[in-house]
Automatic annotation (TrEMBL), chain A:
The keyword ATP-binding applies. Residues 7-237 form the ABC transporter domain. GO terms for molecular function: ATP binding; ATP hydrolysis activity; transmembrane transporter activity. This is Spermidine/putrescine transport system ATP-binding protein. GO terms for cellular component: ATP-binding cassette (ABC) transporter complex. The keyword Nucleotide-binding applies. Keywords: ATP-binding, Nucleotide-binding, Transport. InterPro entries: AAA+_ATPase (IPR003593), ABC_SmlMolc_Importer (IPR050093), ABC_transporter-like_ATP-bd (IPR003439), ABC_transporter-like_CS (IPR017871), Mo/tungstate-bd_C_term_dom (IPR008995), P-loop_NTPase (IPR027417), Transp-assoc_OB_typ2 (IPR013611). SMART domains: AAA. It comes from Litoreibacter halocynthiae. One of its GO terms (biological process) is quaternary ammonium group transport.
Automatic annotation (TrEMBL), chain B:
It is found in: Cell membrane. It comes from Litoreibacter halocynthiae. The lineage of its organism: Bacteria, Pseudomonadati, Pseudomonadota, Alphaproteobacteria, Rhodobacterales. It is a multi-pass membrane protein. One of its GO terms (biological process) is transmembrane transport. GO terms for cellular component: plasma membrane. Residues 89-296 form the ABC transmembrane type-1 domain. This is Spermidine/putrescine transport system permease protein. Belongs to the binding-protein-dependent transport system permease family. CysTW subfamily.
UniProtKB/TrEMBL annotation, chain C:
One of its GO terms (cellular component) is plasma membrane. PANTHER family: PUTRESCINE TRANSPORT SYSTEM PERMEASE PROTEIN POTI. Keywords: Cell membrane, Membrane, Transmembrane, Transmembrane helix, Transport. Residues 355-420 are annotated as: Disordered. InterPro entries: Bact_Polyamine_Transport (IPR051789), MetI-like (IPR000515), MetI-like_sf (IPR035906). Belongs to the binding-protein-dependent transport system permease family. CysTW subfamily. It comes from Litoreibacter halocynthiae. It is a multi-pass membrane protein. It is found in: Cell membrane. This is Spermidine/putrescine transport system permease protein. The chain crosses the membrane at residues 12-34, 66-91, 103-125, 145-168, 249-270, 291-318. Residues 66-267 form the ABC transmembrane type-1 domain. The lineage of its organism: Bacteria, Pseudomonadati, Pseudomonadota, Alphaproteobacteria, Rhodobacterales.
């Protein structure tokens, strides 16, 4: 672990008039972490970022950066630098002037500024492009200039507000790797806002998943994917099949739920909800498409689901089979492409099985809307 | 409490120095250049024209006499009406309206033509040609018309040369020169707002309508004019207000006996040195023109935000 | 086909009428500046002359007026542009519920008659001086009754609204994220304003300044009340035009028109040049196809017109230095004399016929008179008779039409006689 500066949000609530954008958020971000806020648009993640950068004051609670309360300190006095969604490069300034703007306002000489800007330009592989205007750069280049400009201020914390959303897919994937590399090289705390789970999972040390102003879960990407804390997280991060039912029995950290169509199903209770389920409760069980497979004849009925095939799609590296599920929801099964011609025939009744340790059960709740 | 929050937000967004500068400039403008002057003019209009020594003395009381003078003249018994001034007032308002309507009809075709044929060199040349008279002094423009409309002006010479008339026509005394001058003075303030809105109309809308078989008239009535309405009302408002408040054109182009209402105001101020009376006349002018404009805006369902676009 | 042609003809006619109405008076006025006739007119055309420009340049009132107009214009630009800019920035931030009220307030001055603004300014500052207890002769009293001070305030009260409109249009395209980015990078609010917003607004500030200056320069309705004992160009002009017109005003108008055309063409040429550069940059147009014309004029009719106009003005000024209309003026004077003489002749003829008739009536009188009578009788003969009799036989209205061969003979005859 490098020795970056920690950021702590203590009981943050942010209201705009009658509307509560963020409700009682508690987040501890370790120094030097790459930390992501993941959530659908309008969930309040940008609001949190603006509270950290100082563009708005939380209605309640405290923002601590390196242990210091930031109340009443304006954005220009905080040790943070923000990379805007649209990058907000100054269109009338040359690239090097953009990068060294923070030095300019601090009163550094032109020579000093130019020197530092050139160093940063080399770092982002744009050496010699300093005299161009931002409008003369490509999307990816602008992106890197924005990063260099933020880094030039020597911030303790770099805040990134969906900076990759305007790029095309290829470039976005490339920039993910590059961002992660830059973060590891400079070793400061990155706080990253995104609605793209792929970005969050690949880059982050820790991810906070947000829904309508509330943080549902904070954990590593791996844990969020495998052990979602709420139905929202389970359905928002990655693809998931949901089965609704009532808890029939609980033994240790495993539970059996009774569903309408698929009978009794066994799975483990997600770690965050152990002890919070009782027999008779409404529950939801989630199984990833890749955790389903075609069942052998003698499979245990508590981990098998039988359903009619609606459709099958070939996706290159895999086949997706869609089956008639519970309550109008389709069940999706993902089968790796190992040279088969097809997996199923439309209308055919299939038996699918799963491993109980790959399925999680939790109290019923709101799902992410598609 | 809420107001305080707005202010604190404002200073937070702009910083203390910039915030104070912005607020300071705006309040100086609104308070010292607009609101207080208008109020003090209103206050003046209710006072007697007293010698300096008596100002603030027992005789300095509020009165309606300045307004009564417009209606009844110097007749304190209120038996007869001040027909001279009232006639001038009514004539000013009606003539300003006619000038406005004349300008609407004259400008609409050109605004449509310019607005819908963008980009071509010819149109750009026309726009440059339009801008030139816009920046020529109002007085000089009136002067130019006076050269044309004068007794031995170009128009009379031409008419006599063509034997259309044997005697020079006195355009000035008959107020023809004045109306032509008023129409001329503010025509571009009608054209440009119209042109701007029509330019923003998507050409495809017109083509779609034509494709659906709409007649030329219907296209204008149902598509172009509704779209251009804010521009038309905006232009009409400006032309009406400026014509009703015009001073230079009537002074230069008006006949010796026919007055414009602003000239009465001018006379009270500069010739009779009766500021209070002049202020009352000015208030009447301001109030009546504003009421007319607001009524028209209400009828055509246009709001203030459209003015000046 | 024919209906399309009809529309085209109608449109052409309409454009012609519109532009004649708009530009015709200005053209006629410009022409009168070059007519030596002492009344501004184009017909009858007397002589092509630059004398009215001399009259103009030697007119102290106009020179003073221009000077004060410029002083007031500069003051108005500074005040109204800064107020307009502040008002437009506040407009972008004002609480949504207050916005329409606020907008109505800052747009209203455009709609208030200029006369009313002038009066209210005058009345208010007079009042303010009295309230502050400023006595005659004190600094405040002097300031509040100073025509320049009052005119700048009076004009700024509505010109600021025009400036505000220019700024609002530009601000709509401003990304407030840029200011936030600057703050985030450590700039103070003042720095963010100076380094980010102000450079962005610079084109708008330039055009608002030009607009404000021109609006101030040509304002009459407000100025005529607030100027008190000073003079601006417009008030001088208005006074002159009302008291009696002469073509030196036309010559001023001509200068202003030429300057305006210059400015408009320069602006248009610069715009086209910029567009063309952009097109070249984007590879839409080949960079260098021009052979004869310098680069900036290629595909730029405005630039070509600009150069032509400059050429014409140089020729005109050059001619004005050398050209003297004296010969022509003498001609005109002589032509007038001929006209007068023609009339004299006619009168004489009438008189002669009358006399002859009388002579025929009084048959006993000798028939001597008709031969010599014209010398001393007739309408003009009578007028000049005393002079003619007392001096030599070389009167100015020399009644010797029979000897002359036309106008020129008349012109040169007296001179020739004198020089010999």
């Amino acid at each position: 672990m490098s020795s970056g500066v920690a950021v702590d949000l203590e009981n943050i609530t942010i209201r705009f008039g009658d509307f509560t954008a963020v409700k009682d958020a508690n987040v501890n971000i370790n120094g030097g972490d790459f930390f992501s806020f993941l959530g659908p648009s309008g969930c309040g993640k940008t609001t949190i970022l603006r509270a950290v950068s100082g563009f708005l004051e939380p209605s309640e609670g405290r923002v601590l950066i390196g242990g210091n309360d930031m109340a009443g300190i304006g954005p220009n006095k905080r040790p943070t630098a923000l990379i805007f969604q649209n990058l907000a490069l100054f269109p009338l300034m040359k690239v090097w002037e953009n990068i060294s703007f923070s030095m300019e306002v601090a009163g550094a000489s032109a020579a000093e500024r130019r020197k530092r800007a050139d160093e940063l330009l080399d770092m982002i592989a744009l050496g010699g492009q300093g005299d161009k205007l931002p409008s003369e750069l490509s999307g990816g280049q602008k992106q890197r200039v924005a990063i260099a400009r933020a880094l030039c201020a020597n911030p303790d914390v770099l805040l990134l507000d969906e900076p990759l959303s305007a790029l095309d897919l290829k470039l976005r994937q490339h920039m993910r790797t590059e961002l992660r590399e830059i973060q590891q090289r400079v070793g400061i705390t990155f706080i990253y806002i995104t609605h793209d789970q792929g970005e969050a999972l690949t880059m982050s040390d820790n991810v906070a998943v947000m829904k309508a102003g509330v943080i549902d879960q904070i954990d590593t990407g791996h844990n969020i994917y495998d052990d979602p804390a709420t139905p929202f997280v389970a359905s928002f991060v990655g693809e998931n099949n949901v089965f609704r039912g009532k808890v029939k029995s609980i033994s240790g950290n495993e539970a059996v739920i009774t569903t309408n169509r698929s009978g009794d199903l066994l799975s483990r209770i997600t770690p965050a909800q152990v002890g919070k389920l009782a027999v008779g409760d409404d529950a939801m069980m989630f199984i990833r498409p890749e955790a389903l497979e075609l069942a052998p004849r003698d499979a245990d009925s508590k981990t098998t689901i039988s359903a009619n095939v609606i459709n099958e799609e070939f996706e290159g590296n895999s086949f997706s089979v869609f089956l008639q599920g519970d309550g109008g929801k389709q069940i999706k099964m993902s089968v790796p492409n190992l040279g088969q011609d097809r997996i199923s025939v439309r209308g055919e009744n299939l038996s699918l099985r799963y491993d109980a340790s790959n399925a999680v059960t939790m109290p019923a709740g709101e799902l992410a809307s598609e | 409490m809420k107001k305080k929050m707005i202010f604190s937000d404002f200073f937070k967004n702009n910083g203390v120095v910039m915030g104070c500068l912005l607020i300071g400039l705006v309040s100086f403008w609104l308070i010292f250049l607009i609101i207080l002057p208008q109020l003090s003019m209103l206050d003046y209009s209710f006072r007697f024209n007293l010698p300096p020594a008596e100002v603030g003395g027992p005789k300095d009381v509020y009165t309606l006499s300045n307004y009564e003078h417009l209606i009844y003249g110097s007749d304190t018994t209120h038996q007869t009406y001040n027909t001279v001034d009232l006639k001038v007032f009514v004539r000013t308002i009606i003539a300003a309206m006619l000038v406005t309507i004349f300008n609407i009809f004259l400008c609409y075709p050109l605004a449509y033509f310019l607005g819908q044929s963008k980009g071509s060199g010819f149109v750009r040349l026309l726009v440059v040609l339009l801008i030139i008279p816009y920046w020529i002094n109002e007085i000089l423009r009136a002067f130019a018309l006076r050269i044309i409309f004068g007794d031995s002006g170009l128009l009379n010479e031409a008419l006599m040369f063509l034997h259309l008339t044997s005697e020079p026509i006195d355009f000035i005394r008959q107020d023809i020169a004045l109306y032509a001058g008023l129409g001329y003075a503010y025509i571009l303030l009608m054209l440009f707002p119209m042109y701007n809105v029509i330019e923003s109309l998507d050409r495809n809308q017109i083509e779609a309508a034509r494709d659906m078989g709409a007649s030329w008239m219907r296209i204008h009535r149902r598509i172009v004019i509704p779209h251009a309405k804010p521009g038309i009302v905006s232009g009409a408002t400006m032309v009406f207000m400026l014509s009703a408040g015009a001073l230079a054109a009537p002074q230069i182009l008006g006949g010796p006996s026919s007055l414009w209402f602003t000239q009465l105001v001018y006379q009270w101020f500069n010739d009779s040195l009766n500021w209070q009376q002049g202020a009352a006349y000015a208030i009447v002018l301001l109030a009546s023109t504003i009421i007319i404009v607001l009524t028209v805006m209400k009828i055509f369902k246009v709001n203030m935000g459209d003015i000046g676009k | 086909m024919s209906s399309a042609n009809l529309i085209r003809v109608a449109l052409g006619a309409y454009l012609l009428i519109f532009f004649s109405y708009l530009l015709g008076p200005l053209v006629v006025m410009s022409l009168t500046a070059f007519n030596s006739s002492s009344f501004p007119t184009v017909s009858p055309w007397a002589c092509f002359s630059f004398e009215w420009f001399d009259v103009l340049f030697n007119d102290k009132h106009i020179r003073d007026g221009i000077y004060y107009s410029i002083v007031i214009g500069i003051g108005t630009v500074i005040l109204s542009v800064s107020m307009g800019l502040a008002a437009s920035i506040v407009l972008t931030q004002v609480w949504p519920k207050l916005r329409s009220t606020y907008y109505t307030m800052i747009i209203a001055p455009i709609l208030i008659p200029g006369v009313v603004l002038g009066i209210s300014t005058l009345v208010f500052w007079d009042r303010a001086g009295a309230l502050l207890g400023a006595t005659d002769g004190s600094f405040l009293h002097g300031l509040f009754h100073n025509g320049i001070f009052l005119t700048i305030l009076g004009q700024s009260s509505f010109i600021a609204s025009y400036a505000m409109l220019v700024f609002v249009a530009r601000l709509q395209r401003f990304d407030t994220g840029l200011t936030e980015a600057a703050l985030d990078l450590g700039a103070t609010h003042t720095q963010a304003f100076r380094k980010i917003l102000l450079p962005f607004m610079r084109p708008a500030i330039a055009s608002a300044s030009v607009l404000a200056f021109l609006a101030s320069f040509e304002n009459y309705n407000t100025t005529t009340f607030t100027i008190i004992d000073y003079k601006t160009l417009t008030t001088v002009l208005a006074q002159k035009v009302r008291l009696g017109i002469n073509p030196s005003i036309s010559s001023l108008a001509f200068i202003i028109i030429v300057l305006t055309i210059f400015a408009a063409l320069a602006f248009e040429a610069a715009n086209r040049n910029k567009e063309r550069k952009l097109a070249v940059q984007q590879g839409k147009v080949s960079a260098n196809k021009s052979g004869v014309l310098p680069g900036f004029m290629t595909g730029n009719p405005a630039a070509i017109l600009l150069v032509l106009l400059a050429f014409v003005v140089i020729v005109l000024v050059g001619t004005a230095q050398k050209y003297s209309p004296e010969a022509c003026k003498v001609q005109v004077r002589e032509a007038k004399q001929i006209e007068i003489q023609q009339r004299i002749k006619e009168l004489r003829e009438a008189r002669r016929i009358k006399d002859e008739a009388r002579a025929a009536e009084e048959a006993e009188q000798p028939a001597q008179a008709p031969a010599n009578a014209p010398q001393n009788s007739g309408a003009f003969g009578n007028v000049f008779a005393p002079g003619n009799l007392s001096e030599e036989e070389a009167p100015k209205p020399d009644p010797a039409p029979s000897s002359g061969t036309g106008a020129f003979g008349n012109v040169f005859d007296p001179n020739n006689l004198n020089s010999e």
